[in-house]
Amino acid sequence: MFTDSAKVYIRSGNGGNGHVSFRRELYVPNGGPDGGDGGRGGDIIFEVDDGLNTLVDFRHVRKYAAENGEEGGKRRCHGADGKDLIVRVPEGTVVKDLETGKVITDMSGENRREVILKGGKGGLGNMHFATATMQVPKYAQPGQPGQELWVQLELKVIADVGLVGFPNVGKSTLLSRVSNARPKIANYHFTTLNPHLGVVNLGDGNSFVMADIPGLIEGASEGAGLGHEFLRHIERTKVLLHVVDAASVEGRDPIEDVHAIMDELSAYNPELLKLPQAIAANKLDAVYDEGADPLADLKKEFEPMGIPVFGISAVSGEGVNDLLYYLYDVIRKTDRTPKIFEKEFEIEYVGDRSLPYTVEKDEEGIYVVEGPRIEKMLGYTNLDSEKGFDFFQKFLKQSGILADLEKAGIQEGDTVRMYGLVFDYYK
Question: Are the C-beta atoms of 36 and 74 separated by less than 8 Å?
Answer without folding.
Answer: yes
